[in-house]
Structures are given as C-alpha cells and as structure tokens.
Amino acid sequence: METMTKNVSVEKSKTSKISEVDFNNLSFGSVYTDHMLVCDFVNGAWQTPKVVPYQPITLEPSAKIFHYGQSIFEGMKAYKDENGDAWLFRPLENFKRLNKSAKRLAIPELPEAYFMEGLTTLLQVEKDWIPQNPGSSLYVRPFILASGTGFHASPADEYKFIIACAPSGAYFSGKVKVLIEENYSRAANGGVGYAKAGGNYAGQFYPTQLAIEKGYNQVIWTDDNTHEYIEEAGAMNIFVRINDTLITGPTSDRILDGITRKSILEIAEDQGIATEVRKITVSEVVEAAKNGSLKEMFGAGTAAVVSPIAGFGYQGTDYELPELDNSYATQLKTYITDIQYNRTEDKFGWRYPVE
Amino acid sequence: METMTKNVSVEKSKTSKISEVDFNNLSFGSVYTDHMLVCDFVNGAWQTPKVVPYQPITLEPSAKIFHYGQSIFEGMKAYKDENGDAWLFRPLENFKRLNKSAKRLAIPELPEAYFMEGLTTLLQVEKDWIPQNPGSSLYVRPFILASGTGFHASPADEYKFIIACAPSGAYFSGKVKVLIEENYSRAANGGVGYAKAGGNYAGQFYPTQLAIEKGYNQVIWTDDNTHEYIEEAGAMNIFVRINDTLITGPTSDRILDGITRKSILEIAEDQGIATEVRKITVSEVVEAAKNGSLKEMFGAGTAAVVSPIAGFGYQGTDYELPELDNSYATQLKTYITDIQYNRTEDKFGWRYPVE
C-alpha cells in the first residue's frame, strides 16, 4: 500500500517486529523500527522522500562513503506523554545543523520540507514504537551518506538521506567517570569538529578505548595545540559548576553547537543560575577540585541528556566530585525532560508535535 | 567454479566487462574489474578471504560506517612490463600502514597473509586488467569498513576488508596549481592525520572546492595552529626544491607517511641530490619564490606519482614556478616509474612480482 502525505510517500511494512521488543529493557540504539525514510540525491537534486520498510542498503564497493568518510548525521529523540501524544524537541535546530554539517562536508544541502515532512511522516507511521516508559524515548537518527562512486578523492555525485529510529533507554547507566585527555585530540582549528561528521567519531574510538582500559567511561577532549582548554566529550558538551556558577566552553570550529547545551544554558539563566560561556582551563578545574569549589561537572547531549560526572582523571591523579542533594544537573535534567515529555509548560516553545 | 590458493578461495565471474573498457582513454578510478577480494571480521576474527565477482555491498542502515566514519584504506598500483609480467611496488609498506591506520581507528588489525595472499590472488585473477599503456596502471584499493551495527558511538564488532581494482590513467592531467591554505585545516595534533582514515578526506572536499573555484587544483595544507608550516596536499606529500636542495616536511601524527615520499627521498639521496627532511615554513617558500631560489615544487603519492606544481597562491598573490629543462621532478618520476614498470634494475628491492 502506498499513500502520499504532501511530499512524502509511504510504503507500509507487511509485518511488524514490535512484539519482539522488550520495552522495559531497552539498550541504546540497538533495535530498529519497522520503517525508515529514504531520500536520494541523484541528477543534481534531492528526490521525493519515501517511507519504506526498514531494509538493508546496497551500495557499490566504490561508493565514496566507504573510502572518504563523506557522511554526516543528527541525533534526535521522540517522546510520548501520558496521553499518548508524541513530541519532538527543537527539530528545526537539528535540520539547520544537518545543513551546516552538509556544507562543510561538501554534501548538497537538504530542503527543509523534505527533512521536516519526512521526519514527521515517519514518526506518525512509527508512533507505536515511541516508548512511554520513564527514561525511554525513540532515538531518531537522520543521516546522509555519499553513495556516488569513484576512487578519486572528491565529493560524490549521489547521496542518500535516511532517517532510522531505535527505541532506546539511557545512553550511560549511572554516573560517568571521565579522563581529561593530554595526548590525543578530537578536532583541528579550521577542521570539521563543529560538524556532525562521521569521521569525528571514529577518531575518538581508540583514545576512548585506552581511557576505558584505565577505568574511565569517556574522554574529555582538550584543544589539540596546548591541551590546556576543556572542549567537549565527543558525544556530549561539558558543563562545569564552580561554586554556584555554571560554565561551559564557547562553541567554535572545533566544538559541536549542541542543542541540549544551548537549551541548558537558556533554562539555567531562566532559573536564576549564574552562567558563563567562556574558555575553561584544565588547571582551573583541577584547582577548583582541590580547593572544593568544584561542585559539579556534567555532560549534555541529545543521547546522554544531562549526564552527571562522578569524577575525572588528569595526569595520573583521580579527582572525585561531591554528591550534592540539589545538583544543577538534577534540576536541569528534570526541567528539560519535563518539557520533552510534556509534563510542564513549554515556555520556550521547544516542543514540536508529531502530527 | 571455486578454487583455493592457500588461504584464499576464488569464485570466478561468469562474464567479463573487459571488452567494454577503452584502455587508451582511462580516467582515474572510475571503471572496476570483474572481481574483488572480500574478507569479513565476525565473531572476533578475520575469516578466510575470498575472491568473488565484483558486486554491490549490502549493509544494515545502522552499520557504523554510515554514522561514525570508521573506515580506512590504502592505495597501490599494479604495473605490467613489456613482457606482460605484473608487478607491485612495496606492497608490504601498504600492509603495515593499513594496520597502523587500523589501530588508530580501533579496527582489528589484519593478518599479513590475508592481505598479501588476498592481494596477489586477486591480481592473478585480474591480470588481463593491468594496462600496458604508458602512464596507465591498475589502481588497487584495499579498504576496511565497519559493517557492525548500532547507534552507540563505539567501535563496531564486525568489519569488511575489501580489495577492488580500477584500471586507471593519470590522477592529474598536466601541471598542478595549488593554494596554500590559511584558514581550513586537514589534521589535528594527536588526531588521525597520519592514518588513511576516510574522514580525513571528506573534510578536505569543501576547502578544496573553494580553491578550485579560485582556479587552483589542490590545497596545500598547513598546520592547524599557526598555518605557518607546509604539511601535505591531502592526496600527496609535498617536496620543495630551493636552489639544489630537495626539502620535504617530517612525518608526524598530522602527516601521512607516504610510500612514494620515502621512496623519492631514498632515490634522491642515491642520485646525489641534497635532501633535507625538516619543517618548511610558508614564508621561506614565498621568500624563495620572490628571490628566484625556489626552483621546483612537486607532490608525491601513489595515485599522483610525482606531480609537478606550476605555481601556488598565498594571501591573494600567485607565484609562478620556473620551467626547468632538467627538473628533479622529471628525473625522480622517470626513475621511480622505471622501477615500477620493470624498465630498470631494482637496486632497492622494491618491486614485488604478482605470481
């Protein structure tokens, strides 16, 4: 059966896998829904998006995605409220960032209608897959890959924009212990660090494995030149609370302009928390940990939401963070998830109905 | 029909596309041979490599190659001499570098026998595809991609090692005009610049497009911190001749350890050309261009071989390089290709028979 919603056609799957999924024990991003959105760039133009049954992707061995890492992605979540209504959180921000990433990776920019109608059409079809369990949501992964072929290191002439969805639980279980990186780096000045480019992630795997072997969960990346400035955590932006001030680094061409990051900043300011957006040095964080003024650190990102950091390692020393009764992390996470799950007034206009 | 050569099985294609190819008008890397090598990493181990008919690759939408850029590659060429015998050039160097890249990208390292026997078995099967025309060769592209799935930013648990081949002509036609980059960067200190990681290439496309729009062919990358040091050209290492000394930058974690680069250095030293491996500043190159001591610049890489540079742009000014009767570029290119095509004695032991 094929139906058409404005620009998006829908071909329904004949069967559903939903009954096989244990929604009470969801890991992160490892089971996928029955459908996906596919939109091809061929002959110089993005073609009509289609919702189709979730299915493998077939590409030539010479497809540029395999050789030159020409791919970008976004991460979003769909939430279901107590009435069974479904919501997205600031999806236009994801769309804008996707096109920022596209430009930097020499991928043709996508029309807004294709992204937004494709997204909402897919989510209407997959509405039953949006979990209602506390802490769970439907993780939504828009991505673009270079399907055009050739062993010449130059942009592809064909691309695929796809949205796939995975009902998901927490990205991290429990508090996170991080290692402040002194040798490896995530991004160069003038590089692609601000883009959600695939290659930014693969480059983090090995240093992160080394950190995991030492007992940490994640690396806190520092600038590649001096390793003196705290940048981000790869899958999260970083916030530091010194005394009662909440500090995060400024975005740059090395640091991702996180949607959760900027939402947290707005909420904090609205709630009367003093915030500073400025460069953070490793030495001030170490000093603050030593003198007790370092109250909290947490990561912020779509996948990890607000992820409290239990402690950090630096130059062979581990620093513990205190357990707070009324942490900013808890306060901010509660508020942002209350907006996301439609449990509170949406004073910022961030909630977006899936309808 | 399936045969077995030591570790590698061979399934022959029923038909051949070779009669459709015009070997007198080959572009670079855009037509592919009848077979490819495939070797899967599953259940914690690399499986037996297979030569199979050239065919599309089918992957799950959640395959990590699409999301996290976890891929690496190598570039090699197979050459045919006047007797019809086929040769590779220092293939073990490609194997070693593939595994260096694999380690940095958290990809399981490949056994040497699988690489070398896979490569030679494939090339025996494809021997008729190795061009005998002057300046042409069979471009050989080994690559590894993350086929394992998941929307969690962590290394895949499954991979595909593939070798595909493309009979190819010159990478650049004629002399190359380059732009010395002042804003964008290719690699970070402590990053993956020394690896042949897919993501290193996609990040160059947009700045290269901007350079092409200004009338240049390639970007010369500079260090991301000061943009004062000349690094490499993305698809080539860079050599600069000032007076009669041939200079190239030292390899680092930002610069690819090019096999053509180090071969050129050995040949130059053997031929009595004074060489220096040291950091090269943009200002000394500009100064040398102004005072006439800059005699030559050229790129060196497997695809581009030795690619003379006609001139460079920097800060809005174009600098022309002189036309030399007896350039180092010509002398070195002649000698290295004479080794590659078995037209001269192989005093360095670099030629490797396909047998």
TrEMBL record, chains A, B:
GO BP term (any one): L-leucine biosynthetic process
Its EC number is 2.6.1.42
N6-(pyridoxal phosphate)lysine PTM positions read: K196
**Which leading EC class covers this enzyme?**
transferase
Q: In which pathway does it act?
A: Amino-acid biosynthesis; L-leucine biosynthesis; L-leucine from 3-methyl-2-oxobutanoate: step 4/4; Amino-acid biosynthesis; L-isoleucine biosynthesis; L-isoleucine from 2-oxobutanoate: step 4/4; Amino-acid biosynthesis; L-valine biosynthesis; L-valine from pyruvate: step 4/4
According to UniProt, the reaction catalysed is: L-valine + 2-oxoglutarate = 3-methyl-2-oxobutanoate + L-glutamate; L-isoleucine + 2-oxoglutarate = (S)-3-methyl-2-oxopentanoate + L-glutamate; L-leucine + 2-oxoglutarate = 4-methyl-2-oxopentanoate + L-glutamate
Name the InterPro entries for this protein. Answer: Aminotrans_IV, Aminotrans_IV_CS, Aminotransferase-like, B_amino_transII, BCAT-like_C, BCAT-like_N, BCAT_family
- A GO MF label: L-leucine-2-oxoglutarate transaminase activity
Q: Which domain of life is it from?
A: Bacteria
Q: Which cofactor does it need?
A: pyridoxal 5'-phosphate
Keywords in alphabetical order: Amino-acid biosynthesis, Aminotransferase, Branched-chain amino acid biosynthesis, Pyridoxal phosphate, Transferase
What this chain does, per the entry, is described as: Acts on leucine, isoleucine and valine.
Q: Which family does it belong to?
A: Belongs to the class-IV pyridoxal-phosphate-dependent aminotransferase family.
Q: What is this protein called?
A: Branched-chain-amino-acid aminotransferase
- The species this protein was found in: Flagellimonas flava
